[in-house]
């Protein structure tokens, strides 16, 4: 079979030709997810070969060397776990290639199950451009960092539909629910940010992760989706036992929270 190579379009300054862009294998059966992932990967500086099921993914991985493999957890034919096993135990050129699991499953223990199956990373769907960039960078791939406009095109600061919905709901006093949530958000966000930083300084990753998860939930509730994603990345770093990475992510979290506050004021 001939791989379906996603179009990368003309190169821009500093990109080089397509031949200089690392090539990835994306195995994803959902067309919408494929389209989004390919668009993001193009922005991050990669070319992409696409497999629409597990069997095609194994076929391509046996024939073509890739910088990394991105495998959906559940696909027709073989699952992502089965594809990873076939690649790792086969004689093809990708036995040692990094493998990133892309899955909608976020149940407890799911990450551990994928990592135990010879996969090198785990990313829950839906993901943002920044999240995918960080996941690929963690695998050692040369990621072209997205600019602010590129990130905004994929991950808006606010879920406007959510905000409009909250503004339309009124409480018993006739006040918009949004106003109440915004007041709570403004009151609790500084406390949670301080709690995360203090816990990380004390090397208490469990406590830092709980505070970051509470902050992520608060952001999501009010529609601050980009800030919620930044908080979730801190949670993931804490769960992985990587306190140094969690600490590095605090600057981005602060920027996303300030960004959300400004957008909520508009």
Average pLDDT figure = 82
Based on the structure given, which CATH architecture of the largest domain is correct? 3-Layer(aba) Sandwich
Largest sheet: 6 strands, mixed
Distance between the termini: 52 Å
Number of helices: 11
For the secondary structure, the number of strands is 6
Question: Oligomerization state of this entry?
Answer: single chain
* CATH-derived topology of the largest domain: Rossmann fold
For CATH, the homologous superfamily of the largest domain is named as Response regulator
Q: How does this model look, in words?
A:
By secondary structure, this protein is an alpha/beta fold. 55% of the residues lie in helices and 10% in strands. The chain folds into two domains: 4-154, 3-Layer(aba) Sandwich (Rossmann fold); 160-265, Four Helix Bundle (Hemerythrin (Met), subunit A), CATH 1.20.120.160. A six-stranded mixed beta sheet has the order 1-3-2-4-5-6, sandwiched between helices. The longest helix is centred in the C-terminal third of the chain and has 25 residues, at 177-201. It is elongated and about 65 Å long. The chain starts with a strand and ends with a helix. Residues 7-17 have low confidence and may be disordered.
In short:
The chain is of the alpha/beta class. The chain has 2 domains: about 5-155, Rossmann fold (3-Layer(aba) Sandwich); about 160-265, HPT domain (Four Helix Bundle (Hemerythrin (Met), subunit A)). Helices cover about 55% and strands about 10% of the residues.
SSE blueprint:
Elements: E1 4-6, E2 23-27, H1 31-43, E3 47-51, H2 54-63, E4 68-72, H3 80-89, E5 99-103, H4 110-116, E6 121-124, H5 129-138, H6 148-154, H7 160-168, H8 177-201, H9 205-222, H10 225-239, H11 243-265
Parallel strand pairs: 2-3, 2-4, 4-5, 5-6
Antiparallel strand pairs: 1-3
């Amino acid at each position: 079979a001939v791989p379906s190579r996603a179009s990368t379009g003309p190169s821009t300054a500093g990109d080089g030709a397509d031949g200089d862009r690392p090539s990835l294998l994306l195995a994803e059966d959902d067309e919408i997810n494929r389209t989004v992932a390919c668009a993001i990967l193009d922005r991050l500086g990669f070319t992409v070969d696409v497999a629409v099921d597990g069997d095609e993914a194994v076929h391509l991985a046996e024939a073509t060397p890739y910088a990394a493999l991105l495998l959906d957890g559940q696909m027709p034919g073989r699952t992502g776990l089965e594809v990873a096993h076939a690649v790792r135990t086969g004689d093809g050129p990708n036995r040692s290639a990094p493998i990133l699991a892309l899955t909608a499953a976020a149940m407890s223990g799911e990450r551990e199950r994928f990592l135990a199956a010879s996969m090198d990373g785990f990313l829950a769907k839906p993901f943002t451009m920044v999240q995918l960039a960080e996941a690929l960078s963690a695998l050692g791939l040369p990621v072209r960092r997205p600019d602010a406009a590129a990130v905004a095109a994929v991950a808006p600061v606010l879920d406007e539909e959510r905000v409009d919905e909250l503004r339309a709901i009124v409480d018993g006093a006739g006040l918009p629910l949004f106003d109440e949530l915004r007041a709570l958000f403004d009151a609790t966000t500084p406390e949670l940010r301080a709690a995360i930083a203090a816990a990380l300084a004390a090397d208490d990753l469990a406590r830092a992760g709980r505070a970051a998860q509470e902050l992520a939930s608060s952001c999501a509730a009010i529609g601050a989706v980009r800030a919620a994603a930044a908080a979730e990345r801190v949670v993931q770093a804490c769960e992985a036992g990587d306190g140094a990475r969690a600490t590095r992510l605090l600057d981005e979290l602060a920027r996303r929270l300030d960004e959300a506050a400004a957008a909520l004021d508009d």
